[in-house]
Amino acid sequence: MIQQRASMDWMLKDLAEGVPQTRNVVVLSSDGLRMAQYGADNDTADRLAAACAGLQSLAGAVGAELPHSEGKMRLVVIEMDGGFFYLMAAGAGAFLAVLADEGVDAGLMGQRMRDLVIRIGAHLSSPPRHDVEQAR
């Protein structure tokens, strides 16, 4: 996992620096564990990752109410006082989260996030964890 984090650092930095007003970029597993981050200290990134797990679950439940939907969340955007929050599905069991200031170009952010997911989607996958007892 250390190798994976190091290899993603420059890609997350590229997203953050390529879109003005970006604060934090976090890659997380579907169960809310931080896999990589840029622009946030570990505690902030961990809090964002944990919140994202709940948010993607909630979005999936709402999506399941749509006809012809499997309830899989693709993108959530939240606008709040002071900025925007983006959460995008990014490979099997992984998500890309971005916190940005109010002046961010929302269209550019969405485009750059999609580009990043396409470019490194395989690196953003988080394989399911297995119970140690089951593995024996």
TrEMBL record:
Listed InterPro entries: Mycobact_SerProt_Inhib_Rv3364c, Roadblock/LAMTOR2_dom
Spans through the membrane: 83-104
Keyword Transmembrane: yes
Listed Gene3D superfamilies: Dynein light chain 2a, cytoplasmic
Span of domain Roadblock/LAMTOR2: 9-100
Highest rank taxon of the organism: Bacteria
Entry keywords, A to Z: Membrane, Transmembrane, Transmembrane helix
ATP-binding listed as a keyword: no
Name the UniProt record assigns to this protein: Roadblock/LC7 domain-containing protein
The species this protein was found in: Streptomyces formicae
